Amino acid sequence: MAAYNPKRYNWITKLYQYIVIWLLFRPVYYLFYRLKVHGKENIPKDKKPFIVMPNHLSNNDPPLVSLALNIPVAYMAKKELFEIPFLGWAITMLGAFLVDRENVSKTTIKGAKEVIGKGWCLGVFLEGTRSKIPGSLGKPNVGPVYISHLAGVPILPIGIVGSNKPFGPITMKIGKLFYPDRDLEKGKWQCAGKLVELTGFKMSER
Known about the structure:
By secondary structure, this protein is α/β, with parallel strands linked by helices. The chain is built from 6 helices and 7 strands.
């Protein structure tokens, strides 16, 4: 169920994601976590797909990003999440699909490209996993840069602060679309620099 399934990316999944995000998560994050979102003017209005690239602090981050952008986002999620009862089913229904961080397969990359081809935005965390050091970004991965080049779409960086704290407050800053450097190594550090600007966190050591 966690593997990429092209038939799942249709209007039904979009509607389900909207309902869950707006009816369940919106009241919680705005009322109890005191969510503040800056930079909404940077969200593209042309409805063309792009890669959503947030930093990663907690499991709150995917619904927070979808709520802030108000558009359907398909997230690449680590395989361990799909092994948790109910959670695996829930995130699958919301459009997430599995990525094995230790062995990224051709199927995963193909799935990412096809999701974008269907008009969905693709959510990819630059760090790949939650940051372990407070106030610092985790080591960046080349995933967002590679997929951006492969699919020919830009990246929208999003800085998240406070989502790992009980009841926040949470601040999100949406940056501007950009195309990363063609060199994967340079590109990933360029991406990290964007998130440093948006969060105020320290850059990971190279």
